[in-house]
């Protein structure tokens, strides 16, 4: 398919999300405004499917996730009015405690594994998974400066989910992550505890999505898809020594340095014009990723 | 023992610390004001014993460490007026260099291993171990905004102790940690180098402890003991890949999600009332911790 | 050689750098002002040689790297006007993709392995390797507050180099590192994305180097060479558990605690006078470093 052709994500029959595609940017809008965009198993499955498609669809260069700015909340987390049942609705629950897979983590991993630029436009209040799965795994976070953000795990008898206990200390350092998780305090984007977390914030809810979308389009138009993917891999799947990372970077640079995008990058720079990148993940990045050990997380039933 | 019964820590015969208990919060006050609360082997042994008890005593939900606000210092570090002898006073010193165990590190590990919420109220100047062992390993740091903090290792011919060379770069990032350790500069809590280190600061020495105690009591009253312990374990003993952490979080959530505290967490949220958590570490968190490899640090004499 | 004797670095025939020595501080000035201090293979080889000498020369206690404040730039990165050829000029290129070694990474590792205090005085604009290799691996960064800093890898079809994908997330956290790498945005030292990166900034280009040099001389005069080396090793080559780090710190403290510098450190402190440290790396730190696994990065030709 030609790069730029609009994929028909609308035909995939998503219910709890709406997916649109524009200028190489896929836009995901949470579609449960009446339920305060709370978590649902349908939402989980659709987000995983969508981010997996974005990862593999060469036409997608960036993704923006958002909610209706008029929704009562960006995402109010899990609906626990009937208890924590949602956590146990997977079919393998009765096999024992080793069989459960946190649905927030399943979504976070899908976002983290998406090799395109990911942007979230937080245009309302958020709690629980609305922060852990729907903000923390993204590359860029845009926020309404008056949004109320809450990770109340210690006040609810549970614990951090959505791989947030791995990602947040790495994003902001353990001091801020510990304070956020153990206080369970509600914070706003300008809180000292969140310094460095949001790329940009805006005073009104209506501004967030247009701001995030313009940013995503700008990056989609001017970045190399293969560069982005390799940069993300180096950042999250790097070696555990400086020397090991040097070897990874060396091979990355040589792989990219002999491909079309880097030639265009140098040429456009010399000619003082915007670059037109054409390399794609499916065609030009097939030979040596991943270099890391993947821990399998899919649960396989132990009984027929 | 009934939850809430006051444990008689006063009967344990502590000399260099005073331990009190109030509303599920254990308060440790350094009791060497006349010696500027400098380090002593007695202090080391008592702090280790106290934090080990707090960890195992289900009645303790939070710990606050502080000094007399009228003391000449919060803790002036090691008393090196007679050289570094304190470092070598352990009985195994003559067995060789492999036998020594840094006393600051012994205390830091005891604090780090305490699965309850730990808060330090730094109401005076601090140096050396007064920062490394008595501030860095805590979950929350409250400070007098005029406190002078000093880690002068490079100016004294020694090196970071108290596991600070592991913890500080993770708390604040390597850029700030390197600058603090290699400059050896005296800093105040509002220094750009300490951004994110203190949870809150107050302008007068008298305010710190009451502020920290009120905060600790609030958390002690409204947090699940098992949630707190698991959150701390996920933060400091996590997996080294996102997928591995997802497995740990999944099992954590299922373990906690079927216990009384999470049911009460959901119920109280629905009923818009404060939760009353009853799960305890000794009764409800016995089955699968620790999941990590513990490196043994106790020195065992090699000769009879 | 006597500590303080001026080493004749000028006799080493460096071309793309100028090395001077003053009060135990080695000063490296980039000497390609007419080429905007762009990268060259000569520059690479000379920087590696220089930092290797600084590491092993006991007379050197600190290093400052800078550029002429009148140069068009501190370092404009690689000169890609002829494409990315520089990346492939090493002799082993034709052996295959496993043979390449990123020249920026070779320099970064040399700086990172230098056990002395390293300071960079960024007195002009910088791009690419001018940030990754010539700023990120240093202990302290001083900057002109109006300097324009650029890491445009995703806009050029390449990826982070100079071990920056390992170091930057550790220096500042993954949130800021990701935003810097994936946006490719030009930033100034006071950008929220760079908080904690620079130790100090100055409003005019002329002030940076004198400020950095005075700071380096102050540290060179008042720090123990062995303390500095061990602190750097603990920070960048530490254990991966708190307990493991406790063992490393314990042995470090005992090694240093029985040497002349720590005795002088305690004595001078007691006598309220500046310390005069005499221990050196070549004489007093020979017995047990390194404790870590070194990944070999030197390429060895596979054919005769």
From TrEMBL, chains A, B, C:
<dbReference type="InterPro" id="IPR029045">
    <property type="entry name" value="ClpP/crotonase-like_dom_sf"/>
</dbReference>
<dbReference type="InterPro" id="IPR001753">
    <property type="entry name" value="Enoyl-CoA_hydra/iso"/>
</dbReference>
<dbReference type="InterPro" id="IPR051053">
    <property type="entry name" value="ECH/Chromodomain_protein"/>
</dbReference>
<protein>
    <submittedName>
        <fullName>Uncharacterized protein</fullName>
    </submittedName>
</protein>
<comment type="similarity">
    <text>Belongs to the enoyl-CoA hydratase/isomerase family.</text>
</comment>
<dbReference type="Pfam" id="PF00378">
    <property type="entry name" value="ECH_1"/>
</dbReference>
């Amino acid at each position: 398919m030609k790069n730029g052709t609009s994929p028909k994500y609308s035909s995939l029959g998503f219910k709890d999300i709406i997916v649109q595609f524009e200028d190489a940017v896929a836009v995901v809008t949470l579609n449960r405004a009446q339920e305060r965009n709370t978590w649902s198993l349908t939402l989980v499955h659709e987000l995983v499917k969508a981010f997996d498609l974005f990862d593999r669809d060469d036409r997608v260069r960036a993704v923006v996730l958002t909610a209706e700015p008029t929704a009562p909340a960006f995402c109010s987390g899990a609906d626990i009015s009937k208890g924590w049942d949602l956590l146990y609705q997977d079919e393998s629950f009765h096999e024992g405690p080793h069989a459960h897979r946190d649905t927030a983590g399943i979504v976070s991993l899908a976002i983290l594994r998406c090799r395109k630029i990911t942007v979230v436009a937080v245009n309302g209040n958020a709690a629980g998974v609305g922060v852990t799965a729907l903000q923390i795994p993204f590359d860029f976070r845009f926020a309404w400066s008056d949004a109320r953000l809450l990770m109340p795990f210690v006040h609810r008898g549970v614990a951090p989910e959505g791989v947030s206990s791995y990602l947040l200390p790495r994003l902001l350092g353990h001091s801020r992550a510990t304070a956020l998780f153990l206080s369970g305090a509600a914070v706003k984007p300008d809180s000292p505890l969140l310094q460095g977390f949001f790329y940009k914030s805006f005073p009104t809810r209506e501004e967030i999505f247009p701001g995030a979308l313009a940013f995503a389009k700008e990056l989609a138009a001017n970045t190399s898809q293969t560069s982005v993917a390799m940069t993300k891999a180096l950042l999250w799947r790097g070696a555990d020594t400086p020397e090991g990372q040097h070897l990874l970077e060396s091979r990355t640079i040589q792989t990219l340095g002999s491909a079309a995008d880097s030639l265009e990058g140098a040429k456009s720079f010399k000619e003082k014009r915007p670059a037109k990148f054409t390399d794609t993940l499916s065609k030009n990045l097939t030979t040596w990723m991943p270099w890391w050990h993947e821990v399998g997380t899919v649960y396989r039933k132990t009984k027929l």
